[in-house]
Amino acid sequence: MGSRQTPSSCSKTLETLDLETSDSSSPDADSPLEEQWLKSSPALKEDSVDVVLEDCKEPLSPSSPPTGREMIRYEVKVNRRSIEDICLCCGTLQVYTRHPLFEGGLCAPCKDKFLESLFLYDDDGHQSYCTICCSGGTLFICESPDCTRCYCFECVDILVGPGTSERINAMACWVCFLCLPFSRSGLLQRRKRWRYQLKAFHDQEGAGPLEIYKTVSAWKRQPVRVLSLFRNIDKVLKSLGFLESGSGSGGGTLKYVEDVTNVVRRDVEKWGPFDLVYGSTQPLGSSCDRCPGWYMFQFHRILQYALPRQESQRPFFWIFMDNLLLTEDDQETTTRFLQTEAVTLQDVRGRDYQNAMRVWSNIPGLKSKHAPLTPKEEEYLQAQVRTRSKLDAQKVDLLVKNCLLPLREYFKYFSQNSLPL
């Protein structure tokens, strides 16, 4: 079934409803969620997908309290403690804040781990860590085609019930706890308006100056509209499924502008509106009579033209990438203009750096994905820039793709098998 190592056998015509609430935000407020889910998923028959709803009835012995995360079930079932007073990730009773997706708490260390890991994705387009506890290892993958979430064996066995991981592993098609129309599975209770709760959690607990946008439920996602400056990223967008070959506006749109010298606000407003603005300094080895700082200033100027109106609530993202060409003064200026610190993306093969780029962006997850470079690493990378005449375009595309993976939580994507670049 849907563990990361096993290919999916589930039909990819399944659609995901907006299951944040059971009120008027649902597509059809007059019909029960279970009925809506089945109507919107004609490919799912009773024997094609199993639903894990009930907690295991196995009794717990009051005389032998367990240790570790097993305490969660014991405290709730035997000691009648509210699950909001227990950290879902580690089982401690030293709760710092609420878990944003499911009823339960988070201690301070687990809160930090959750913030760092939630928007990290693997090359297969799914999250790198468990949606509940943000741990790694072997993970169950949700097989709804519009969902990117994964869950670890330990979480489902402890929070849903012992033996649940075996049941899920035997299923032909498994749909996760945030996609099912049922809000409770054992001790696992999905929060109402969990997308709003996630945004509020990130804005309040995150250390960065940029707020994130609320993630968008699959049935509300629209095709992405991209403005690409100085470099065409159509291959990257197609690999992610955001663009379809030969499609019109139904499969996403891309406007590529190589020279923006004479571009004015009226032009950008005519081409747009846009959901993503991409720009970069010139590739290494390219013949250009402009300094690297010119690209940053022009990107910032065009970005101001593309920004949505202040009252707009639609997600809007931007990303500027530097091929390690900006001077230290230019980097400080870029940080001041774009109002966020840079991170350095590294393509490391063995002990060698194959490629690296500095990135400024408001896309979630970048800040936690890459630790700051040491002075020795910086020196090595700068030497690499001086000795190499050009960067491998495909390796650059791979770095760009990894930056854009979190956008699958916001925009419609197609071509399920198109991720490898």
Automatic annotation (TrEMBL):
Q: Which UniProt keywords apply?
A: Metal-binding, Nucleus, Zinc, Zinc-finger
Asked whether the keyword Zinc-finger is assigned, the reply is yes
Q: What is its main location?
A: nucleus
One GO MF term attached to the UniProt entry? enzyme activator activity
Q: Which GO terms describe its cellular component?
A: condensed nuclear chromosome; cytoplasm; ESC/E(Z) complex; heterochromatin
Composition bias, Polar residues: 1-14
User: Gene3D superfamilies of this UniProt entry?
Assistant: Vaccinia Virus protein VP39
PHD-type domain ranges (all copies):
75-207
Localization per Swiss-Prot or TrEMBL: Nucleus
Query: Looking at the record's lineage, which domain of life comes first?
Result: Eukaryota
Q: Where is the signal peptide?
A: none
Question: Looking at the keywords, is Phosphoprotein present?
Answer: no
Q: Name one GO biological process term.
A: negative regulation of DNA methylation-dependent heterochromatin formation
Where in this protein does the record put region Disordered?
1-39
Protein name per UniProt: DNA methyltransferase 3-like
Q: Which organism is it from?
A: Mus spicilegus (Mound-building mouse)
